[in-house]
Amino acid sequence: MSKRPISIDELLKDDTTVPTYISRSKRIKETTTEPQQQKLPLPKSQSSTISNTTISNTTKFKSQRNDTNLNLEPKIRHHSYEPRTKRNKFQFDWDESEDTSKGFDSNYLINDEEDDDEKLKDPLLKDRSIGHWTNKSLEQMTNRDWRIFNEDYGIIIKNTNNTKSSIPNPIRSWKESKINPKMIEILTESGFQNPTPIQRSSIPVAIEHKDVIGIAETGSGKTLAFLIPIFNYLLSIDSNFLKYEKIKNENLILILAPTRELALQIQKQAEIFCKKLNFNIISIIGGHKYQDTIDEIEKNGCDIIVGTPGRLIDSIEKKIFELNKCYYIVMDEADRMIDMGFEKDLTKIYEYLPTNNQLVNSIDSKIFGIKNKITMMYTATITPIITKLTNTYLIDPIHITIGGAGEALDSIDQKFELINDSANLEQIKISKLIKIIQSHNYKNPQSLIIIFANFKDIVDQISEELNLKNFKTTTIHGSKSQELRETSLQQFKNHETPILVATDVAARGIDVPNVSLVINYQMPKDFQEYIHRIGRTGRAGNFGESFSFIVEIDDKEIYLPLKKFLKKGDKKLPDWLYRYHQ
Ligand code: AMP
């Protein structure tokens, strides 16, 4: 077929089927006569709306910057042509000062002067465009808007069949959500102005009484992600039942956590709401006296129990509390509970819970407004055992992953030093450690530092060495009594002892603001633990640093996962790791 140019008339006809070809002389003639009207290419998102409109090629978009109602009406204007011989290119007959199309963005139209107070608080809501979801009411949100919303917040949400059906939409703001207004008041009073991504996505699911598996980074706000639906549920329960019928030691909610510290931290966060809403939360963890727990339940009752699996089983067997009316269960850091050998305990606890049959065949279903037990499970990773647990205990759970979970944490600058194994390894490490702390403190005088080691003895040793150099340190490890561990954590949080030396007991879930440096004096043997350790810094929108000593032969097994982890997160590899090939 001849490759000759196509007539412009033919191209512009809507019903063009077979193009015709024209000679050069005819084309020149055409350019010197009054032009035909033609179609203007439109931004992809608008083309469907006005696809049948014919407009002049001089048409331009009016500025949309201050225009809330996107005007899609094309403006028709004509221009006059001069013969081609007089010029080299097309010239339009408009005045430059009228060019309101400058700054036009083909995807979105900027409307940044419209930000109200609420938008300014949330960086994403400070966004940009009239067509974008941020400028739409809830009713105007299309499936495409929800998809962009999820992308904006890094939310990946699926149901068990990998489809989107029956997944409630995430929360755009507290006030638009179905959260009880009393809760919203407490949240905003407490400074939680906007939900975090895991809260945006998992709260509506749990509020609709569906099971949730949440995979989110440490520090992502997952505690409130399960506490908010819990209080919403408690507030929805028949008040007569709560007032007159509830037996004092029958708790309604059970939260399982791997460590005592995490359980206490959950309790502390829940107490903000308990105090204002008149509920009671009790922690059941090793190190506390049974009698104290009994007295506390006797005095104040227990709507919510948070505890570690072993101690919970002991307490259930001692009938300190009963699970007959407990239809709401949270497993926090489920992967860690499995790592710590709690799988059998979890199974046992589930056996003590009432069955779904009990629920539907009794008045309970009416009192609690639910048709099956609700389980929310949070984990950093999905392992085969987690999948097994999920299949056994959860019903058609909604899977929610927040972008970057389990990947290199963007807010942390990770540094490494490779050290050769030698007879005086510990002295070398201690003197390097001191230099790192001194230089960090110089730059960040108010900062908190956590140093991790794998063994209690090493933790004590590091602490002693640092104390000798006048650094104020405290320690947490498994050989310390619960009371001492709590005191140490408190002293650290209060900046009384701004350096905490700890084993992995402190690695998971512990949320202390202002930790700006995490040092791995010894690398953990399990690489996942590395992610959890460094996750103690760079939390809630802050930046942090981590520094890890790698001993050349000892730590060989983490080279590969570390390399993959850093590469996946687009982080710079240290030379020795870059050169490492298995
Ligand atoms: P978590 O991942 O639950 O340990 O929470 C990490 C930190 O984020 C805690 O200090 C929370 O108080 C804080 N946090 C949780 N939710 C929000 C929110 N919606 N807005 C601001 N901070 C939050």
Task: Explain what you see.
- With 582 residues, the protein is α/β, with parallel strands linked by helices.
- It has 23 helices and 14 strands.
- The strands form two sheets. The protein has an eight-stranded mixed sheet, sandwiched between helices.
- Helix 7 packs parallel to helix 8 and helix 12 runs parallel beside helix 14.
- The radius of gyration is 31 Å and the shape is globular.
- It starts with 7 loop residues before the first helix and ends with a helix.
- The protein binds adenosine monophosphate.
- Adenosine monophosphate binds next to helix 8.
Condensed summary:
By secondary structure, this protein is of the alpha/beta class. It has 23 helices and 14 strands.
Question: How is the topology of this model organized?
Answer:
Blueprint (H helix, E strand, L loop, with lengths): L7 H5 L11 H9 L11 H4 L69 H5 L21 H10 L2 E4 L22 H9 L7 H11 L4 E4 L6 H15 L2 H7 L7 E4 L3 H18 L3 E4 L5 H11 L3 E4 L1 H9 L10 E4 L2 H6 L3 H10 L3 H5 L3 H5 L5 E6 L4 H10 L4 E5 L9 E8 L5 H19 L4 E5 L3 H13 L4 E4 L5 H12 L5 E4 L12 E6 L6 H8 L9 E8 L4 H13 L6 H4 L4
Parallel strand pairs: 2-7, 2-8, 3-5, 3-6, 4-5, 6-7, 9-14, 10-12, 10-13, 11-12, 13-14
Antiparallel strand pairs: 1-8
Helix pairs in contact: 7-8, 8-10, 12-14
The structure holds adenosine monophosphate (AMP).
The site of adenosine monophosphate has 13 residues, from α8.
Whole-number count of domains = 3
Please give the number of β-strands.
14
Shape: globular
Distance between the termini: 57 Å
Q: What is the subunit arrangement here?
A: single chain
